[in-house]
Structures are given as structure tokens and as C-alpha cells.
Amino acid sequence: MSTLEERMTPRPRDSEPPKRKRSRLRTAMHALSTVLIVSGVLLLADAGLTIVWQEPLSAAYNSVQQSRLSGQLEDDIEQLRPTALEERALQSLPDAGSRVAFSARALDRKAKAGQPIGRVVIPKLGLSKVIVEGTESADLQNGPGHYPDQPMPGAPGTVAIAGHRTTYGAPFRTVDKLGKGDRIELRMPYATITYEVEKLQIVAPTATWVTARQDYNRLVLTACHPLYSAAQRIVVFAREVETEPGSGLI
User: Is-above-0.90 flag for pTM?
Assistant: First the structure.
């Protein structure tokens, strides 16, 4: 009886013919393969741009941030300059060099992490970037960062600035092209300090001696080395050669 019932009971028909199913499957597979191919091409393009120039997405982010920081620096310039009380103290100092050093120390007391403090200009590299205070990852995403435990430009000692070479605008990507005598300007709210490159050196990441104070004022630029690696550091050593008092930001 059960066999007869099974034969007499109508079986549910497939609502879609097999040919249509196969056609839909082929369409879905084609769409998936197209997405994968496009994704692969984009990844290869991203890698190619990174090798030839710099990582494009973080570069776009950095460009926006640099524009914002440039505007902020212009807005904050009065706050970054010496206060009225500091100005009175400045007038009692005997020479321009002492007044610049005083202003640098005053800025050092005021500067907060991530705040724009000045601009680094390297004519040979066509570089002009806003410098921020600090060298944490978030700071360097916005631009070259001033080591907070080192003096401000214009104060006695070794000024130190770090920057990326392949991401976030890659400001120091081509610092290896600098040679003896090339000039670097640090344009600050109180002065423009100019340095001349003395040498480049590759060091270990643990080489803290590079920021040690010397018997002359100097600047060091640091960045990861080689490109696409943090195994070492490339360091540019430059000697201070000229200080021009007055805002270098106008």
C-alpha cells in the first residue's frame, strides 16, 4: 500500500529548470572572478606605487593632514610666539642668538603632542613639510615629528626630527640623496635656522647616541632604512650655520 501511495502521491517539481540553475551559477562565478581580478590588480597597483613612489592611501591621508596643519600653524602663530612677559625678558638679553634660544625654550614649554610647531624645508629634495611635536605613530602620520626630549631649533644642542620614507607622505623618502653641504631650513615662529649636511650614516634602531649633544648646534633627521624595512635607521647629520631672527612662517 505504501508503495502504491508513493507512486500516486505527486512529487514536488523543481521550480527552476537545471539549465537556468547552471546559467545563474556561471553568472555568479563570473562576477566573483571579476571582483577577484579587479582586487588583485588594485593590490598590485598599490604595491607598484609604493615601490616607485609611496603608499597612496596613507599619502592621501597625509596630504589632507598637512593642509590642515598648515592652516592651524598660521592660526596658532600668535600663541606660539613669546608672551608679553617673555618679550620683556627677551629685551634684556644681550644678542639675537640668546633671544632666539630663549624663544625656542619658551616654545618647548608650550608645545603639545601632535601640535604643528614649524616647517622643514630641504631645497635639494623639493621638500616643505609642517613639523609636529612628537614622534609617536599618530604624530608621524601627520608629518615629520620633533623629538620631544631634544631641544627646539635655535636652542643649544642637537635638534632631532623623524619622518617616514614609504608611508604617510613619505617626507624623508629621498634623504639618502643628500650630500655634504646641502642646506636644510627649519622655519619657526621666532626664527629660520639653517643647517648644512655633514654626513649620512646607517645605524641600528638602538643607536641613541645620534641625538647626543655636541660642542656645536646641529640637526639630525632620522628615518627607517632600507626602504620598506625598519631593520636600521638612516641618519642625516647637519651643522647649524645661520640663524635669522623673526618668524620664518610668514
Answer: no
